[in-house]
Amino acid sequence: MTKSQIIGSVLAALVIGGAAAAFAITWRPAIAAIDPPAPQSFDVDLVRRGRDLASIGNCSDCHTVRGGKGFAGGLPVPTPFGTVFSSNITPDAETGIGRWSEAAFRRAMRSGVDRAGEHLYPTFPYDHFTNVTDEDDRALYAYLMTRQPVHAPARDNQLSFPFDKRFVIAGWKLLYLRQGSYRPDNTQSAEWNRGAYLVEGLAHCGACHTPRNALGAERASAQFAGGDVDNWLAYAINSRSPSPVPWDADALFTYLRQGWHPDHGVARGPMAQVVSNLSSVPDSDVRAIAVHMASVFGAPSPERKRRGDEVLAQARSAAMQASASSGGGATQDSTTNTAGAPIYAAACATCHETGRPAPYGGINLRLSTGLFSPDPRNLANTVLFGIRAVEGERSPIMPGFAASMNDGQVAALLNYLRVRFGNQPPWTGVEKTVADARRTQAVFLQTSSGPRNAPTDATQRDKP
Amino acid sequence: MMILKVNGQDHSIEADPDTPLLYVLRDDLGLNAAKFGCGLGQCGSCTVIVDGRAVLSCVTPLVLLEGKQVTTLEGLGTIKAPAPIQRAFMEEQAAQCGYCIAGMVMRAQALLQKNSKPTDDEIRAELEPHLCRCGTHMRILRAVHRAVGLMDTADASSASQRRAQ
């Protein structure tokens, strides 16, 4: 045995031993199965409230696959430990949660245990959902139990040993699941506290925006410092935000409400689905999230604010020049990236420099958070696959360039943008990032649910 | 100056590297099937095939076409001997004003080259970037299905078809 193998065996033994002990402590009995309750037995207002809460929780995003029935599960969720498939949470008696009582549902939300008493993987973010109140769990239960039942057996997870053993989760919970940890802050407003309750609980913002440790748990010491999801970088949404223009509560509200903001651009990737879902919830809840998150971002330093104002002024004057000139063509640039410049001029500037307002005209790239990001993943994803229109709605749109540019050409373009509009040093290893993006996004676009985009008009969203 | 390969022929082009392919096709080569619609890559009417893949020619600069094979609608077939995909569009009367059709045909052709038996959902998803103001979408869908059948016959191996691949 090599040294690393020995260490590995000892570690595995510790993990298994610890987990077995944890299992003994955290073991939970089955909760009796019930006959699926009739949809009419639920109060309509309760169901409606549950719909809004499910939207805030973004439940449909993980529990629905592209082209599949709502909430029927089956989405592959890649993790460092293997792939977990989302479960069927329709009220189907055999394959869904039709035989779950409200108590069983609440237990799953609070402590990540299914009706039969098995531990659920924390890809289901019960480390956040544990903060959801009984009242909200009741509404969510009413909403899910009144959906169309779909017969869809769960797919087997593909996890490596020992993570394929569910008792290991018991150990994870002892380490990282803190039940009843959320407390309102009496020094803050009711709106701020409402936002905090949603952000820390159902909305589970940290699940993507907080970096995770080696065991896949959010690092409490780096809350909202930026995380990874589906080969996108979920930007830091605290004082380390890379956004060239600092966020405030109004901008956050607009962005979360309509899916884009003129000073920040369009939500895309996994965030597109989040804002798409948020577009149907009451203004007051979105406003509360915005107010709370604005305080998490914190007030910008005078220097950061000055730079933000400067960038905004540059972008606005460029827009005015473009609409004043007849063609609205690309501005001259002084940089010397020979490969990137002509690509930008023909493929990007036609939208991004026309001065046409967002979301139909592209934002001035000086305002793009992606250019100030630690790595070019998000830009690569966007350039390759564009922003798809939402069916039947007016929405932002951008063509993808996967078919017309090779990895080297995309890489040249990204570093051209980075240097010219971001005034930042070029990224390294961009070509590999682009190759990875090409491979992984093609898979995600085939499997993940619905429009990866946000509607501009919330009234067009589905009603229950 | 650069060499641009279009429909199997080499052309010497005098143009800046950031010139959109569409301008060269229409203004320099007189190939007018690809249309200027929005000029923003949002309507699909400028679509041509580059190395087997559908590409929006209005947002594709010449610099990206070094050594690549461009196929336009003119390269698929002729009036006397239309390619299967063109025959299918004619037989289904899929064109009304016709402005979007060249683009629709080219993307459908690229789809059928890599997937000879697409489902209805796959065709719809593939043609999603294309707009048609006349509303002949149902006929266009039928035409693509018909082309699948036509390509199963001997027509599929016509010279023009091979060139597009």
Return Rg of chain B in Å: 15 Å
Low-confidence stretches of chain B: none
Round the Cα radius of gyration of chain A to an integer and report it: 23 Å
Task: Tell me what portion of residues of chain B adopts beta-strand conformation.
Answer: 5-15%
- Using a beta-carbon cutoff below 8 angstroms, give the protein chain pair with the largest interface and the number of residues from each chain: A-B, 21 and 24 residues
- Largest sheet of chain B, order of strands side by side? 2-1-5-3-4
Helical content of chain B stands at 25-40%
Order of helices and strands of chain B: EEHEEEHHHHH
Structural class of chain B: alpha+beta
Task: Please give the oligomerization state of what you see.
Answer: heterodimer
The average pLDDT value of chain B, as a whole number, equals 92
Q: Helical residue percent of chain A? A: 40-55%
Mean pLDDT of chain A: 89
**Which shape of chain B, going by the Cα principal axes?**
globular
* Continuous helix count of chain A: 17
Succession of helices and strands of chain A: HHHEEHHHEHHHEEHEEHHHHHHH
Please give a structural write-up.
The complex is a heterodimer of chains A (464) and B (165). With 464 residues, chain A is mainly alpha-helical. Chain A is built from 17 helices and seven strands. In chain A, strands 1-2-3 form a three-stranded antiparallel sheet, with no helix packed on it. Chain A has a two-stranded antiparallel sheet with strand order 4-5. In chain A, strands 6-7 form a two-stranded antiparallel ribbon. In chain A, β1 and β2 (82-85) form a beta hairpin. Chain A is globular. The model of chain A is unreliable at 326-332 and 451-464 (pLDDT under 50). With 165 residues, chain B is an alpha+beta fold. Chain B has helices spanning 21-28, 84-91, 101-114, 120-127, 137-152, 159-164, and strands at 2-6, 9-13, 47-50, 53-56, 69-71. In chain B, strands 2-1-5-3-4 form a five-stranded mixed sheet, sandwiched between helices. In chain B, β1 (2-6) and β2 form a beta hairpin. The two termini of chain B are 26 Å apart.
